[in-house]
Amino acid sequence: MSKSLLSLAITAAVLSGCSLIPDYQQPQAPVAAQYPQGPAYSPAEAANQAAAEQGWRQFFHDPALQQLIQTALVNNRDLRVAALNIDAYAAQYQIQRADLFPAISANGSGSRQRTPARMSQTGEAAISSQYSATLGVSAYELDLFGRVRSLSEQALQTYFSSEEARRSTQISLVASVANAYLTWQADKELLKLTQDTLAAYEESYRLTSRSNEVGVASALDLSQARTSVENARVQLARYTRQVAQDENSLTLLLGTSIPANLPSPQPLSADLLSELPAGLPSELLQRRPDILAAEHNLKAANASIGAARAAFFPSISLTANAGTLSPDMGGLFKGGSGTWSFAPQINIPIFNAGSLRASLDYSKIQKDINVAQYEKSIQTAFQEVSDGLAARQTYNQQLQAQRDFVNANQDYYRLAERRYRIGVDSNLTFLDAQRSLFSAQQALITDRLAQLTSEVNLYKALGGGWNEQGSQKTEVSKEAPPLKLF
């Protein structure tokens, strides 16, 4: 008996190193080695520091925005859920990994039973007792073909993917807070511009009304001046609403109310963001958390193939216990009361109507799906960065042209007002100059907001927003969670 047990243990130890998981091969990146070139893109420059290594405090210069991001990282519920998901997947990995070890349990029991006289063989009532204490292993599977270790590896890769998902959630949160804050500031500037413009329109309407009373301005001039006032009031209500909604959106992202001690915000025209180096597309494979998460999911699918393959082979499970058995409590631990049992079980799949083959095919299909998802995540990242690079160059040109357009409209407005006041031109020309200037100023604020949000989105696309300071490392630990034995 002891020799057979020893032989079985040696055989299990030799076969325990067997694994049917396919060798993992990282798919080739389905994108070009360089970002697009052309009139819409600025010339490529060497980067001293990758964008992902720039801490968000280093990238965002506005102290108010920095405080809002810090508040969101502490209170945002989506980020909190992502962190809890890591703990949940760590627990699942712990559950799966525990199957690699035998589950040992101790049990003690006792019973007393009275047998009536008519049921007793002796014809007299009898009382019997039995007490036992055992230590045993129940249904421990010998992982001969790596099925359990394949499932453990799958759970581990899923845990790593959840870590990257949390990182991706934080990066998205930083970008979302920044964009919400910039939109809030832009709408406040548009609201202030509208208030000033409405005041100018109302003053113009008052002067036109006085001129109409003395017969200098016609009723048409007065009606046209009034339309400008009413249109500005429409815009005022619109931007008042948008500012309030922007505050609500920002509050949701923060997970709490906007701090009362927020520093004075910088205007949109200030230097709010740092310059971003684009680097190479290959760097996205190491820095974009969504790409890394997709790759870990691919590795998990690859490990599941090993488990499906191992299911074709026999499985052996052991159940054993040893202890003492006695009819009275006092003799439970005396010599001669020892008891043991050993019950190995082998399961050999013979016929299952193609279930195991279908399970293997399903695992392979799932791997192919994850390969496609991994490649799509790379293509999406490449497209987002390329769009950001195109926006950078063209927005610089567009903003400069829009500033020149605003300056031209300001000159037009001053000349039209002067000529209207001295009676050279009609009120129609003056009102047209007012509307043109207002529209150009609105467009300048809107274009500046679009430029800033495109830079924020480019920072996110390059994997930035994970670190607080640029000197910190961007890598996420790829170590399995500690094994808890008890």
Key structural traits:
486 residues, alpha+beta, four-stranded antiparallel sheet, disordered N terminus
Main beta-sheet annotation: 4 strands, antiparallel
Shape: elongated
Q: How many helical stretches?
A: 10
Number of strand elements: 4
Rg, nearest Å:
37 Å
Strand content: 5-15%
The chain-level structural class is: alpha+beta
Calculate the mean pLDDT score and round it: 87
Poorly predicted ranges? 1-10
What is the chain-wise order of helices and strands?
HHHHEEHHHHEEHH
Oligomer: single chain
Tell me the helix content.
55-70%
N/C terminus separation? 32 Å
Strand order of the largest sheet: 1-2-3-4
What's the helix and strand layout?
Blueprint lengths: L1 H14 L40 H4 L3 H13 L1 H21 L6 E12 L10 E17 L4 H67 L5 H36 L29 H4 L1 H22 L4 E12 L11 E10 L7 H67 L5 H35 L25
Antiparallel strand pairs: 1-2, 2-3, 3-4
Helix pairs in contact: 3-5, 4-5, 5-6, 5-8, 5-10, 6-10, 8-9, 9-10
Structure description:
- There is one protein chain.
- The chain has 10 helices and 4 strands; from the N terminus they run ααααββααααββαα.
- It has helices spanning 2-15, 56-59, 63-75, 77-97, 147-213, 219-254, 284-287, 289-310, 355-421, 427-461; strands spanning 104-115, 126-142, 315-326, 338-347.
- It is of the alpha+beta class and 486 residues long.
- Mean pLDDT is 87; it is low at 1-10.
- α3 (63-75) packs across α5.
- Helices cover 58% and strands 10% of the residues.
